[in-house]
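Q: I'm building a small set of examples for a reading group on sequence design. Run inverse folding on the following structure and report the sequence directly after it, with nothing in between.
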């Protein structure tokens, strides 16, 4: 095959198609009202593209860049979906009739709302599903456990184990 400059025509076409695909995915993701779903969509698709690139081993793609993109989408997903849940425990609550109010009911409500919304979302790749579930679990359980220990909370609606079991059910679809 003739080579133009430093990139062969077929490689150039593949690069252009991949670029168009990324633009279309980014554009399509804008249609999701829920920011968590938007970034999960981008994460699922970017991960798939990265996996396909690894399978066919094309030297024309920067695998490290694809991996960074996947990691960035995962981090953004965690920030928009689960950081608000955890922030309920970190934000001081106003006093109720002169007493400090526990942030646990707000945390429990936000956790349940986010969990219920995302329980039916799907992550088709088992490896990505496991990685994402682990990242959410580490974020939520570590923050929840720290709050419980620091605040000497003894009566809980959800134990850390309950939350962990629930989080393991996410993304099965």
């Amino acid at each position: 095959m003739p080579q133009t400059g430093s990139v062969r025509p077929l490689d150039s076409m593949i690069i252009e198609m991949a670029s168009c695909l990324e633009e279309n995915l980014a554009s399509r993701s804008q249609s999701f009202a829920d920011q968590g779903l938007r970034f999960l969509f981008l994460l699922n698709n970017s991960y798939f593209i990265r996996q396909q690139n690894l399978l066919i081993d094309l030297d024309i793609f920067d695998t490290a860049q694809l991996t960074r993109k996947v990691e960035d989408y995962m981090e953004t997903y965690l920030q928009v979906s689960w950081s608000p849940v955890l922030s309920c425990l970190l934000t001081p609550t106003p006093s109720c009739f002169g007493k400090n109010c526990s942030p646990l009911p707000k945390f429990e409500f936000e956790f349940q709302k986010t969990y219920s919304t995302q329980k039916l979302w799907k992550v088709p790749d088992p490896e990505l599903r496991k990685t994402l579930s682990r990242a959410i679990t580490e974020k939520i359980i570590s923050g929840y456990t720290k709050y419980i220990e620091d605040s000497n909370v003894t009566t809980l609606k959800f134990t850390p184990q309950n939350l962990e079991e629930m989080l393991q059910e996410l993304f099965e679809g």
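The longest strand covers residues 95-96.
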